[in-house]
Amino acid sequence: MQGRSVLPPLACLASLALAAVASAQAAPTSHVEGGDVLVLVAGERVTLRLADTGKLQIDSVIPAQVFEAAPPSAGGRKLGPKDPLITAPSGAVALVLGQVGDAAWLKIENGTSLAFDYEAWAPKAGGGLEPTNVCTVLPLLAGYEQWPGRRLPRLVLNRFTPRATNSVDCPQPTGPPPAVPGL
Predict the structure, then answer these.
(1) What integer pLDDT is reported at residue 20 of this predicted model?
(2) Nearest 10 degrees: CA dihedral of 157, 162, 163, 168?
(3) Across the strands, what pairs with 143?
(4) HEC profile for 72-95?
(5) Largest interatomic CA distance in the chain
(6) pLDDT, tens digit, for every residue of 117-129?
(7) Which domain holds residue 129?
(8) CA of 128: how far to CAs of 154, 155, 162, in Å?
(9) Domain contains 120
(10) pLDDT in tens, 75-123
(11) Residue 7 domain-assigned (yes or no)
């Protein structure tokens, strides 16, 4: 390699690596705002606990395939006798937001002993949040929500309210949207 320098290609690789790290650091991630508002980012599986005080405690945020948010397809994976209906830990709730075809999907696994209601808000083009319909999630089961024709890179959830019932309600949010910086 007489007369050639290997530094420019190495410098180029180094700058690409730094750009990738900066991009990963700048990428939004699911988090709790103000103790009781979950900002859920598509492609992440969030496991959290619902405290009696209404506060949310995140146990974990891990990458998820976006198709995991939709219900299993007919003829898809068969559950065996030892397969759980949900994989959320006991006492926790796991959520995945994703895109399947032209529809946004939300899967919520309820690993608690009580049903719960909650409210969901979708980001609007130009800023702000708009209410969405969601339904009660029964204990020890998964609930699914679908928004046809929508792409939702994130969803804001709040007002998690545990209740001793097996009744499923699907009301609109009752109050104003939560204040979430950047949305």
Answers:
(1) 47
(2) 30
(3) 108
(4) CCCCCCCCCCCCCCCCCCCCCEEE
(5) 78
(6) 999 999 998 889 9
(7) 28-73+82-163
(8) 12, 12, 27
(9) yes
(10) 555 656 666 678 899 999 999 999 999 999 999 999 999 999 999 999 9
(11) no
- For residue 61, what are its two tokens? 């945020």
User: What strands lie across the sheet with 129-132, from one edge to the other?
Assistant: 31-33, 37-41, 154-163, 115-123, 129-132
Question: 42: closest CA among 68, 21, 16?
Answer: 68
Residues of 20-38 as b/e, b for ≥16 C-beta within 10 angstroms?
Answer: eeeeeeeeeebebbeebbb
Query: Of 117, 16, 100, which Cα lies nearest the Cα of 64?
Result: 100
Whole-structure pTM value: 0.81
The pair of structure tokens assigned to 3 is 């007369």
Domain assignment present for residue 128? The answer is yes
Helical spans, DSSP H, in 110-173:
none
CA angle 42, 45, 143 (to 5 degrees): 90
